[in-house]
């Protein structure tokens, strides 16, 4: 179904109309900051795909946007009066942006375009100024983009950071998309039901081919009309959904029903689901396939058989809706001289919007995501004061206009008012104009300035006599009318006679009088004058000029800009990589001189290389600290979990000892037995509780148990830093002493390696010491962790003094009441100490690089920074290696080999820089 088709995620700059990625922060032409969700989609028919499509809007969003329903007129369904707010929209979850194509794929696309460049002119039919020069510029940009694609496919670029490479590919992919002159340009015709869209389309293509749907029937599917060359066959193709796409539509509808915000939505979605299920049961086996089925309808059967594929069945129809299985219908018709638009153009007829149909509104919303031009059609029965017309204009404003610059937006929308000939009085004219002016609030502010139409150029819309335009076109093409058009043809002849004075002003060469009584008797010249009088040629001319100039000015400008941005980014990447190699020049000549000087100073370069290798250890250590911070600062990290578990295990260990009776001696009860002297009766109920000593013992026991359990949190805390260190030793090699030393061993180098391992062990010990110190210090706080007699848990224990139970029962109750006292002692200890432990451990790690030392006894003396244990180790390693260079031939050879590899790598980047500069200069000179 149309409302689940997928779209590519691109956006349009509102300042300059540049096409950019949906996730772009700023426009790469004008620098304007962008918002996500702009509506322009990437070209839809490239020779090879340049991006991966992403899913579109959900059904629930579409259902929630339906507004108050109205009564229908003759050409529409009967509407329900009940409605709900359009604001009840569900946010759309977008997937990750698509990846651009690889340079090899882009190069293949550009080569295909170059192969067709000899026939490029047929894609630019309008006679524009400097047409030959602009086509030549287009071919040069194709060649330039191909050369860029070859540069971007070089080996050294395959090893740079992925995000930087993606940025290069993105610029190149967008340039290739802009240079794709073969893609279809689509003109989408939208409007309310009964506005006369089909009649206008028939007049535009010069063919009366569309089905005459009866009664209140309306178009229910997207209908494409593609103009083809004379050597192509005329066909009507019905494109059915795939089995997977239809199943996805069912699933989305079911999910939307469950998530619907009110009963209105649920009822409408449930009705749609019922229609889908019924259609599936009746037609799925025949029409749904793994690959889309395309059914071809012969030319002679278009009007008779096409209704079942296009017409939306009535609401009360019990028959299965075949159109629910149809993706779209496409007419392929020959372009005629009076169709005005060239072969390859596509006109899209969309179902009437805001008519209370979920499917129709979904199709409209989806199609507004990808437009080159829009013809907004308004009939004289739905002017600007009609709610449905206003809602359609609001959708166009939201989806198409508000994310584009006013100049581009105002040019790409063509407002056409059909049945203008039915407005015959001054009162009706004033009413119509006043109603139409209210629609300007949803159009760009400069729309009325840029659009001057009508006989006197005083309307901001195209006043059309669409039915007259259709018959005039058919007559000029000398086509015969179908039987169901004969009466309308006679009516047309009457209108020709009634406006004949106006036709004489248009073409003074016409006969002074006209007396034709039959359609076939009207001359071709009279038909052509009537066509001009209908207002349609003005609309078609403006539309053609806009589409052609849009290719010249917007696409070519975008391609030039994207290629320039790609070359600039490539140059920046080259210099950035060279800077990492210690080369800071920004001039190619100076760079080459510097390379020659470096080759003549091998000895000094050896020491620079050693310094660079040891300095990288500082960088790797800092990166490990950043990873540690990221892990520890995350919620529910491993250290947090281990800390909580350690406290719980310590508490459980003490509670087990409580139940085993290890603390029973703090509860003293008399143990009189049966048969004792009656004189002892007075002491039979005596119970004594030593609460304070019990609490002290519980705290002491919990401290001992916690000290044992803190080994696991301490290990987890240390590994949060030592694991990144281990990765950089084993994988990166940036903290591997042996690799840094290029295999040099023996003597003080072995001692440095031992000190490094001892340093890592000290980190584990430090983590345990900090865990113990902070936890035990916190537990010493008697105000927080030593409950008094007034505490509820302790008071419950003391109430046993007045208990009348047997001694063994009192002891058992006391054991149960000791558990809550222990819980008070444990308290919030784990949560209170976690952050402090982590911060203190991080402080100790910082001291391994730099620590503060006070050298004097005076209090006002500032501390000095001295190297920590890790920094001392690196300094010692560098000093030792510089001494080894003088005595070890093997070390000198390895350093020279590394330098030679580095110089070769630099040479490749310098060559790439030269090619980039050559390509840029050559274009400027041309």
TrEMBL record:
This is Dynamin N-terminal domain-containing protein. It comes from Reticulibacter mediterranei. The lineage of its organism: Bacteria, Bacillati, Chloroflexota, Ktedonobacteria, Ktedonobacterales. Residues 67-88 are annotated as: Disordered. It holds the Pfam family Dynamin_N. Transmembrane segments: none annotated. Residues 70-88 have a biased composition (Acidic residues). Residues 188-398 form the Dynamin N-terminal domain. InterPro entries: Dynamin_N, P-loop_NTPase.
């Amino acid at each position: 179904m149309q409302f689940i088709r997928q779209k590519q995620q691109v956006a349009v700059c509102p300042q300059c109309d540049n096409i950019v990625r949906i996730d772009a922060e700023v426009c790469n032409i004008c620098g304007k900051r962008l918002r996500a969700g702009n509506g322009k989609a990437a070209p839809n028919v490239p020779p090879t795909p340049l991006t991966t499509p992403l899913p579109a809007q959900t059904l629930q969003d579409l259902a929630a946007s339906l507004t108050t329903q109205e009564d229908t007129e003759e050409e529409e369904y009967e509407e329900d009066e009940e409605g709900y707010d359009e604001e009840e929209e569900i946010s759309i979850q977008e997937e990750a942006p698509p990846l651009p194509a690889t340079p090899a794929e882009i190069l293949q696309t550009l080569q295909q375009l170059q192969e067709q460049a000899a026939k490029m002119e047929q894609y630019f039919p309008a006679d524009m100024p400097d047409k030959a020069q602009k086509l030549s510029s287009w071919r040069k940009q194709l060649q330039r983009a191909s050369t860029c694609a070859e540069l971007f496919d070089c080996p050294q670029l395959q090893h740079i950071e992925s995000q930087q490479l993606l940025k290069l590919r993105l610029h190149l992919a967008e340039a290739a998309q802009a240079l794709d002159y073969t893609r279809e340009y689509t003109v989408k015709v939208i409007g309310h039901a009964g506005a006369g869209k089909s009649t206008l389309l028939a007049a535009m293509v010069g063919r009366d081919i569309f089905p005459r749907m009866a009664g209140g029937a309306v178009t229910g599917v997207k209908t494409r009309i593609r103009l083809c060359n004379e050597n192509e066959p005329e066909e009507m193709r019905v494109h059915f959904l795939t089995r997977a796409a239809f199943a996805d539509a069912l699933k989305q509808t079911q999910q939307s029903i469950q998530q619907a915000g009110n009963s209105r939505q649920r009822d409408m979605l449930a009705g749609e689901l019922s229609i889908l299920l019924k259609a599936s049961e009746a037609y799925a086996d025949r029409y749904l396939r793994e690959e889309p089925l395309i059914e071809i309808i012969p030319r002679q059967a278009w009007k008779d058989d096409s209704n079942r594929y296009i017409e939306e069945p009535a609401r009360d129809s019990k028959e299965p809706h075949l159109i629910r299985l149809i993706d779209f219908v496409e007419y392929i018709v020959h372009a005629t001289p009076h169709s005005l638009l060239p072969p390859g153009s596509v006109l899209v007829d969309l179902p009437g919007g805001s008519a209370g149909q979920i499917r129709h509104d979904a199709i409209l919303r989806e199609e507004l995501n990808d437009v080159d031009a829009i013809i907004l059609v308004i009939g004289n029965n739905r002017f600007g004061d009609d709610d449905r017309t206003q809602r359609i204009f609001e959708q166009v404003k939201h989806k198409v206009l508000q994310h584009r610059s006013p100049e581009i937006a105002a040019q790409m929308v063509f407002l056409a008012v059909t049945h203008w000939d039915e407005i015959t009085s001054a009162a009706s004219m004033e009413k119509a104009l006043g109603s139409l002016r209210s629609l300007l609030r949803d159009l760009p502010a400069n729309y009325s300035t840029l659009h001057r139409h009508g006989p006197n150029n005083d309307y901001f819309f195209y006043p059309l006599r669409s039915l007259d335009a259709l018959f005039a076109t058919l007559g000029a093409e000398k086509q015969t009318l179908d039987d169901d058009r004969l009466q309308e043809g006679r009516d047309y002849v009457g209108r020709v006679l009634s406006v004949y004075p106006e036709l004489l002003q248009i073409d003074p060469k016409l006969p002074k009088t006209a007396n034709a009584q039959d359609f076939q008797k009207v001359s071709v010249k009279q038909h052509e004058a009537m066509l001009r009088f209908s207002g349609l040629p003005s609309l078609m001319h403006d539309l053609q000029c806009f589409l052609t100039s849009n290719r010249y000015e917007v696409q070519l400008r975008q391609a030039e800009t994207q290629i320039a941005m790609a070359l600039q980014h490539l140059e920046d990447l080259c210099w950035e990589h060279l800077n990492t190699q210690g080369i800071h020049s920004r001039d190619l000549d100076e760079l080459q001189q510097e390379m020659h000087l470096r080759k003549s100073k091998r000895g000094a370069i050896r020491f620079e290389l050693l310094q660079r290798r040891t300095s990288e250890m500082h960088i790797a250590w800092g990166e490990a600290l950043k990873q540690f911070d990221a892990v520890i600062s995350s919620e529910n990290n491993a250290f947090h979990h281990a800390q909580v578990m350690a406290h719980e295990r310590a508490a459980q260990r003490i509670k087990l000892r409580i139940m085993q009776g290890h603390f029973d001696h703090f509860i003293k009860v008399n143990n009189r037995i049966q048969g004792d002297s009656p004189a002892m009766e007075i002491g039979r109920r005596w119970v004594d509780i030593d609460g304070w000593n019990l609490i002290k013992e519980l705290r002491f026991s919990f401290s001992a148990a916690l000290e044992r359990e803190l080994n696991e949190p301490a290990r987890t805390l240390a590994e949060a830093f030592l694991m990144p260190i281990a990765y950089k030793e084993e994988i990166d090699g940036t903290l591997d002493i042996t690799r840094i030393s290029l295999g040099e061993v023996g003597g003080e180098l072995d001692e440095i390696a031992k000190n490094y391992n001892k340093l890592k062990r000290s980190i584990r010990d430090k983590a345990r010491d900090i865990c113990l110190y902070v936890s035990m210090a916190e537990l010493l706080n008697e105000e927080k962790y030593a409950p008094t007699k007034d505490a509820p848990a302790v008071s419950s224990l003391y109430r046993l003094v007045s208990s009348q139970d047997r001694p063994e029962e009192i002891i058992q109750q006391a054991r149960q009441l000791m558990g809550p006292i222990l819980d008070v002692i444990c308290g919030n200890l784990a949560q209170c100490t976690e952050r402090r432990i982590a911060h203190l451990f991080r402080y100790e790690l910082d001291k391994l690089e730099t620590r503060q030392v006070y050298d004097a006894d005076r209090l006002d003396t500032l501390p000095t920074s001295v190297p920590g244990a890790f920094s001392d180790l690196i300094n010692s390693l560098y000093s030792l290696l510089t001494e080894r260079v003088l005595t070890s031939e093997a070390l000198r050879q390895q350093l020279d080999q590394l330098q030679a590899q580095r110089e070769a790598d630099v040479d490749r980047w310098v060559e790439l820089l030269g090619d980039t500069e050559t390509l840029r200069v050559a274009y400027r000179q041309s």
